[in-house]
């Protein structure tokens, strides 16, 4: 049985706070250009069912930027912290949301998963661990 992760997170200023419990998922590190521009990359994310994410404050402080045809990126409008990647217009993925895992309180109980979009990684970024590497999303 998959273990359940109880998580609690917030943005840098604390205006946006959230929590929840969701199945364990390895943390993916995205090396794509968009993630790099958005948060100086790579973007480390923990993906959860959207219904398992509850806001305890500041849901109205979140702003979304539509970064592609099917996805949007959520950030705090007060401090600018990157918070979520959500494929809200993708039929298969819209019910899940990727949380910027750096927003979560330690210890998270999570483990490191694959490096994705390695084909687009920055030239200065050397991947030296033994985690799986994918050129694209898998
Ligand atoms: Zn904030
Ligand atoms: Zn990315």
TrEMBL record:
<comment type="similarity">
    <text>Belongs to the Gfa family.</text>
</comment>
<dbReference type="Pfam" id="PF04828">
    <property type="entry name" value="GFA"/>
</dbReference>
<keyword id="KW-0479">Metal-binding</keyword>
<keyword id="KW-0456">Lyase</keyword>
<feature type="domain" description="CENP-V/GFA">
    <location>
        <begin position="7"/>
        <end position="125"/>
    </location>
</feature>
<dbReference type="InterPro" id="IPR011057">
    <property type="entry name" value="Mss4-like_sf"/>
</dbReference>
<keyword id="KW-0862">Zinc</keyword>
<dbReference type="InterPro" id="IPR006913">
    <property type="entry name" value="CENP-V/GFA"/>
</dbReference>
<protein>
    <submittedName>
        <fullName>Aldehyde-activating protein</fullName>
    </submittedName>
</protein>
């Amino acid at each position: 049985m998959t273990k359940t992760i109880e998580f609690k997170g917030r943005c840098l200023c604390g205006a946006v706070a959230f929590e929840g419990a969701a199945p364990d998922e390895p943390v993916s590190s995205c090396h794509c250009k968009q993630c790099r521009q958005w948060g100086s990359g790579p973007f480390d994310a923990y993906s959860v069912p959207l219904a398992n994410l509850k806001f305890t404050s500041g849901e109205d402080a979140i702003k979304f930027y539509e970064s592609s045809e099917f996805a949007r990126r959520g950030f705090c409008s007060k401090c600018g912290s990157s918070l979520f990647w959500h494929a809200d217009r993708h039929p298969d993925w819209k019910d899940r949301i990727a949380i910027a895992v750096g927003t979560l309180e330690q210890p998270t109980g999570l483990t490191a998963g694959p490096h994705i979009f390695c084909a687009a990684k920055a030239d200065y970024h050397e991947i030296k661990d033994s985690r799986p590497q994918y050129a694209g999303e898998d």
